[in-house]
Amino acid sequence: MTQDTLPVVTGDAVRDALRARREIALIDVRDEHSFAQAHPLFAAQFTLARLEADAPWRLPRRDVDIVVYDDGEGLAAPAAQRLQALGYSRVSLLDGGLSGWREGGGELFRDVNVPSKAFGELVEQERHTPSLAAEDVKALLDAKADVVVLDARRFDEYRTMSIPQGISVPGAELALRVRALAPNPATRVIVNCAGRTRSIIGTQSLVNAGIPNPVAALRNGTIGWTLAGFALEHGQTRRFGSVSDADHAHAREAARALAARAGAQRLGADALDRPDPTDHTVYRYDVRTPEEYAAGHLPGFGSAPGGQLVQETDVFAPVRGARIVLADDDGVRAPMTAHWLAQMGWDVAWLDGVPSARFAATDAWPPHAPAPDAVAPAKRYRRPYEGTDNPREAMQAYLDWEFGLVAQLARDGTHGFKVLGAGA
User: Fold this and answer.
1) What is the pTM of this model?
2) Contact call for residues 213 and 187 (beta carbons, < 8 A)
């Protein structure tokens, strides 16, 4: 099939599908740097060099609607043809590509992982998530106040740079681990990330879970800390430890209640033995740590630590409207993650009561190594919040952009987000 005979789908049709929650994958096949300059809200970036490796796990159903676009580089048609050769039967081109989307009134977003970042800003606006400025947190630390700083990013990000005294507790671990790290209800808990999203979601997770401690996000994360003129630590290895039975029980009760309130479905272990649906995309993810996943996981489940899954839905679940099934072995991390994904408009379920003996698979994830040119430096988007040598102007511009995301969501009108209110 040539470019002239590939089906073409309008931007209006894509937006209608998104608003109706019909399954659709909007695929941008430009390099990551170009993608980050402008793209639709729910577009997912696929590096062309990794298309054959990534499509099977990111687009698991071969007859899902896939709409491919570029910005006039001539990449979309070859990518669509390669997807067809892989067995995908409903592949179309976006009419006019990125320019057509723009000219048809579609909103364009910058950066990466934008659905999650925009959702985080909406959560803060609607729930008034508590936060403290870097100057206030620094004053608490200098005064040796009763405070604990929990870093909600991946451990490798924490190792690169961290707030003094910070402890690595990636997002999905917070509700499970916080009571062990701050057993005194008077201890102030500060949650940070590099920018805003994971600190907002992490802080609100603890608020939603009803912990007795005062809790606040470090406003603007390590960016805010740096812009305030304060030094970061590097190479730290402080991590969370074990959890008592009593703390585990508190966290499990709160997580289950939140998942139910948000509309996530609880599944028993028997769900693992049911046949896969043929008419619905299903993503299955283990939300525990990468180390736990490597030691043994459920067959057919990929590794997506819960905090990162919420942060990177465009990577882990490019098919908007798909179902996401989550697994853990503690009854806390999966329902806590599910309660966020449900608010982001996903059809989400979590497994409960799976015997530990079934966590026995040891295959690697992702299933294929990167192609040699998949992450060429010139094509990779340098995040303003990563590393320690970014210009101050770039950091401030990034924050200014995040502050405008809620207004962009309103203009776009396809998000389907619904923030859970304060509960009893």
Assistant:
1) 0.95
2) yes
